[in-house]
Every structure is written in C-alpha cells, then in structure tokens.
Design a protein that fits this description.
Blueprint (H helix, E strand, L loop, with lengths): L4 H26 L2 H13 L1 H4 L1 H14 L5 H26 L15 H9 L4 E5 L5 H11 L3 E5 L5 H13 L3 E4 L3 H9 L3 E5 L8
Helix pairs in contact: 1-5, 2-5, 4-5
Length: 206
C-alpha cells in the first residue's frame, strides 16, 4: 500500500522530534543520577502542556477507572504520573551513561535464586511485570543478575528512537524482541533464556 502525504508528514515530524530530543537525551546521560532524576521530574511536570494529546488521553483513562472521582483529583493523579515518568526516564538515561553494574545498586529483587536454578536446568523463564516504577532500570539490573535476559517491547513511534532504546538496553546485555516476534521469543525460551515483559502492553499488537 502506497503512503499518503499525511504519512510522509508524520514520518518527517517524528524524525524532526528525534533530532531535537537526541542532544537533550545526551545531556541527561551525562548528568549525575540525582541531578538528572530531579530535572526529569521537573520536565515531567510540564508534560501535560507539552503533549496535550497525551494529557487528554490520560484524563479519559483515569475517568474510566474512577468515574466517581472529582476532576481535580484526577488531574492530581495525572500530574503525579507525568512527574514520576519524567523522573524514571531521566534516572534510566543517567545510568546508561555509566558502568552497567551501577544500575544494580538501585534495584532489589526477590526470588532471583529460583530463576537462576531454572536457567541452570536449561528452562526458559518468563518474568512478568507492569508499568510500575522504573521498569527499564529493573530490566537493566535483572540482566546483570541473570544472563541471557531479553525484553519484549513494541516499536516506538519513531524508528530512530526505537533503535536508540535498543542500543541502550544492549549496554546492559539485554536483547530486545518485538512483541510480534513470537517465533524469536519462543526460540529464546527454548534455549533457556529469560523473557522480561510488561504484562500490560497493548494486547492487540502482540
């Protein structure tokens, strides 16, 4: 199917946004983690104004989940979400600019021994989590503890940004599988690998 002018416009706009974001990302990667995280929270608190479409969608989702909640309280939840998301992204970026082992100091796990034992027996393991806290940091720290860890993720809105995120994950020894790559995921598990995935990804794209 041929692309429309609108499709090309979207691609160009996304590529331009990546070019703008790239130097900002590098700044966060070079800042001390504490400074980067604090600045990320500040940027996140402005996300509702910078991305009105996402803010509107967030309000709609919160309203579905809590129809009885006053709008002012919904906005408070949304604002806290954006702020924490900014902190999480900034923290992760800061640690991608450091030795991979540094990320392990920020995460605690329970049940690692059971995973190690399963892997030692050649069994594949699926680790389920959700969009809670800093899931990228959790995956990075987990991969330091358990080799052959891979994550399942869907492609981001811009191919350049997706490739960048994949490169950052690979710094921690993580392989990324597209969430439509069922065969690749199956083969990884058959080899005794570990799949680290977010259970609340959009299921219609899996």
């Amino acid at each position: 199917m041929s692309r429309s002018i609108l499709d090309y416009w979207k691609l160009a706009r996304r590529a331009a946004l990546y070019l703008v974001l790239r130097p900002v990302i590098e700044i966060f990667r070079r800042l001390p983690p504490r400074v980067s995280t604090g600045l990320g929270g500040l940027v996140g608190s402005l996300a509702g104004r910078l991305f009105p479409h996402e803010a509107r969608r967030g309000r709609e989702n919160i309203a579905r989940a809590f129809p009885e909640m006053p709008p002012v309280d919904r906005d408070r939840i949304l604002q806290a979400h954006f702020r924490q998301l900014g902190r999480s992204v900034a923290e992760y970026l800061a640690y991608t600019g450091r030795e991979p082992s540094a990320a392990s100091s920020r995460v605690r796990f329970s049940g690692l021994e059971e995973v190690r034992q399963a892997v030692a027996r050649g069994k594949g393991v699926v680790v389920l989590t959700g969009h809670f806290g800093n899931w990228e940091m959790a995956a990075a720290a987990f991969a330091r503890e358990v080799p052959a860890t891979a994550v399942v993720a869907r492609e981001l809105y811009d191919i350049n940004l997706s490739r960048f995120v994949d490169r950052m994950r690979s710094r921690f020894g993580i392989t990324t599988f597209d969430n439509r790559d069922s065969i690749g995921i199956y083969r990884h598990l058959r080899k005794g690998g570990v799949i680290f995935t977010l259970v609340d990804q959009e299921s219609r794209k899996v």
